[in-house]
Design a protein that fits this description.
The structure holds two protein chains of two kinds.
Chain A lengths: L2 E3 L4 E5 L4 E3 L2 E3 L5 E7 L5 E7 L5 E3 L5 E5 L4 E6 L8 E8 L1 H4 L6 E3 L3 E6 L1
Chain B lengths: L3 E4 L2 E4 L5 E7 L4 E9 L5 E8 L5 E2 L8 E7 L2 E6 L8 E9 L6 E3 L3 E5 L1
Parallel strand pairs in B: 2-11
Antiparallel strand pairs in B: 1-3, 3-8, 4-5, 4-9, 5-6, 7-8, 9-10, 9-11
The chains are: A mainly beta, B mainly beta.
C-alpha cells in the first residue's frame, strides 16, 4: 500500500535561511507526488507536483522539490525563507494507475509545521 | 486559479443533531469531489469520493449512513453528518477536481465541526 512519511513534525528556521522539508514515499511504481501548504483558516494550496520528466520541479512562492527514485524521496526546498512561509506543509502521493479515474485519491503525510524566526 | 469554498467554516451543534456541509467549486466544473477528515496534528484522511450524478464511494471504515454525501451538480457536493456525536468533532475538508484535468485537486478552506 502507498504511504507517505514526513519525518519532521516541526521545524524552525530563521528568516532568510534555507529550508528543506523531507518526504519519503512508499509505492511500487512511479508515483504522482505533490506538496501542499496549509495556512490557518485556509485550504490546502498546491505548491508543486511531479508526474514525470525533469526530477527537479519548480513551484510557486520560490519552492522547488527534487524527486529521487533511488531514495524514494521528494524533498521540498527553498533557498531563503520568508516569515509568510510559516505554515503546515503536506507531502502527498497519488497512485499512477488510479489517479486519472474516478478514484484518484491522495495519500498525505502527517505534515511538517514550519515556524520562522525573525 | 480554481477556487473551492466550504460553508459553514465552523459549526457547533448538540449531540444527536445533523449537520450539513457544502462544498462548491466557484469558477469551474468538478466532476469529482473528495471529502477528507483531519484530526488535530494528523494528516488528511480520505473519507469518500463523490462523482456528480452517482453514488459516493466510501473508504473502508467510513460509515456511509453516518456521512451522507450528495453531488447533485457539477459545482456542489454536500456532506451531512447524521446524528452527530462528540467523536465526530473534526476538521472536514473537501477538494474538487477539474473536469478534464485529472491531475490536480483544489481544496476548500475546511469546516471545523464541534459536537457538544
Amino acid at each position: 500500500a502507498q504511504s507517505v512519511t514526513q519525518p519532521d513534525i516541526h521545524i524552525t528556521v530563521s528568516e532568510g535561511a534555507s529550508l528543506e522539508l523531507r518526504c519519503n514515499y512508499s509505492y511500487g511504481a512511479t508515483p504522482y507526488l505533490f506538496w501542499y501548504v496549509q495556512s490557518p483558516g485556509q485550504g490546502l494550496q498546491l505548491l508543486l507536483k511531479y508526474f514525470s520528466g525533469d526530477t527537479l520541479v519548480q513551484g510557486i512562492k520560490g519552492f522547488e522539490a527534487e524527486f529521487k527514485r533511488s531514495q524514494s524521496s521528494f524533498n521540498l526546498r527553498k533557498p531563503s525563507v520568508h516569515w509568510s512561509d510559516a505554515a503546515e506543509y503536506f507531502c502527498a502521493v497519488a497512485a499512477y494507475m488510479n489517479y486519472g479515474g474516478s478514484q484518484g485519491n491522495l495519500i498525505f503525510g502527517k505534515g511538517t509545521k514550519l515556524s520562522v524566526k525573525p | 486559479g480554481a477556487v473551492v469554498s466550504q460553508h459553514p467554516s465552523w459549526v457547533i451543534c448538540k449531540s444527536g443533531t445533523s449537520v450539513k456541509i457544502e462544498c462548491r467549486s466557484l469558477d469551474f466544473q468538478a466532476t469529482t469531489m473528495f471529502w477528507y477528515r483531519q484530526f488535530p496534528k494528523q494528516s488528511l484522511m480520505l473519507m469518500a469520493t463523490s462523482n456528480e450524478g452517482s453514488k459516493a464511494t466510501y473508504e473502508q471504515g467510513v460509515e456511509k449512513d453516518k456521512f451522507l454525501i450528495n453531488h447533485a451538480s457539477l459545482t456542489l457536493s454536500t456532506l451531512t453528518v447524521t446524528s452527530a456525536h462528540p467523536e465526530d468533532s473534526s476538521f472536514y475538508i473537501c477538494s474538487a477536481r477539474l473536469a478534464g484535468r485529472q491531475e490536480t485537486q483544489y481544496f476548500g478552506p475546511g469546516t471545523r465541526l464541534l459536537v457538544l
